[in-house]
Amino acid sequence: xxxxxxxxxxxxxxxxxxxxxxxxxxxxxxxxxxxxxxxxxxxxxxxxxxxxxxxxxxxxxxxxxxxxxxxxxxxxxxxxxxxxxxxxxxxxxxxxxxxxxxxxxxxxxxxxxxxxxxxxxxxxxxxxxxxxxxxxxxxxxxxxxxxxxxxxxxxxxxxxxxxxxxxxxxxxxxxxxxxxxxxxxxxxxxxxxxxxxxxxxxxxxxxxxxxxxxxxxxxxxxxxxxxxxxxxxxxxxxxxxxxxxxxxxxxxxxxxxxxxxxxxxxxxxxxxxxxxxxxxxxxxxxxxxxxxxxxxxxxxxxxxxxxxxxxxxxxxxxxxxxxxxxxxxxxxxxxxx
Length: 337
Description:
Layout: E1 4-6, E2 13-15, E3 17-20, H1 31-43, E4 48-50, H2 59-67, E5 77-82, H3 98-112, E6 117-122, H4 131-143, E7 147-152, H5 157-170, E8 174-177, H6 192-199, E9 202-205, H7 237-240, H8 246-253, H9 256-262, H10 266-275, E10 280-285, H11 290-296, H12 306-315
Parallel strand pairs: 3-4, 3-10, 4-5, 5-6, 6-7, 7-8, 8-9, 9-10
Antiparallel strand pairs: 1-2
Helix pairs in contact: 1-2, 1-11, 2-3, 3-4, 4-5, 5-6
């Protein structure tokens, strides 16, 4: 079963393995299969589910809502996000304006079939909307009872400081950031994590297996497996390309004996690795089949000692991306519509 951690400086506990439905529900996986994976997650002790309005243009939220229908709402933690273009993608169907936030939260709640979400997240930073407007809207959403807490995704250290100060001033809680993080992608370690620790903000990390590269299924000098994420533009193929080079794939294969010695799969080792960071509250995992969930949850509660962490660093030496400046390139400088 899955262990639980506090999310930021709050009393909210979340399952440290959290189910995310970015590239599965509403697009890659048929709805019946998606529902089965959600039920497998619940059976494994996962109570926390992360989605976004932009995933399959709302369909992912609808599928999740259908999958959790009949469950005790108070026993679940449901997260969603707002920022990217949705609906007909008109000029106000994107960003973090008051108008878009108010319309988006109502649409998300309807699709999810719930009166509130536990965490409402700014999916990126919006350079075209005053941050004061954004946080006033978030504060009103919280006071209306439509969200309990506020989070963000892929914000820089400076943006986190500004957002945290505004949230405190408005009497709401900014408790989380959702960045990409894995043994291969460590850009948050330099600035974002130290700032977050100081502010009482946790990381909910996506792609802990580096889009599947850290499972070891992509081999140097060989074509990518048919039907894998690397072949499907809807499933994050653009994100995985940065890792699909022989140098990185050769280094990743050095992790196999480390995992074998611990009785773990390479995927479990990669999830356990991100959970060793005490600023990480949860690792987001997706699944297209129920058995993948059963496999992933075995990483919960695993402790990697210092010698193992050092061995992983040695194996990946030279292929790790840890440039903190990359965190400043994640949010678009202009809205996408």
